[in-house]
Amino acid sequence: AFQTVRGDAVIIAKEILRSAAGLDDIKSMVLDSAYVLENPSTTGRYIVEAGTVLSLGPSDGKVKPVYEGENVVQADVAGILGHTVEFWLGPGITASTNTDKPVPVLHHGCDFDVSKLVGYTGNETDVKAALFTCLFR
Questions:
Q1: Which of 4, 29, 62, 124 is the most exposed place for a label (fewest CB within 10 A)?
Q2: Are 26 and 79 spatial neighbours (Cβ–Cβ below 8 Å)?
């Protein structure tokens, strides 16, 4: 068919929850592509994995990923990324508002498998305090 537009595929590579979350546990936010780094295991691809801690960005109410080794404070924790997202960035395509993506953010009443979370190590206390209705096991 002509004039067909297809959305992005949902990548479900790992299960980050120990038990199912209800729809009320998910909020939609925009992930700022300016903070997305090239994935070291897949050269040339810009992927943010499910289970990545998300923090509030500096402006516009957008969120950004918290990578391993980075610190986040309780007041900035927005939640945990619900599924893996790939950004189409690279040579000739720079990060902008056109490359930002809406993402599902888990933030309430979830039971997380901490072995699957990204950016959690070193930020445990602040993430737990910000997401106080969630379990981290």
A1: 4
A2: no
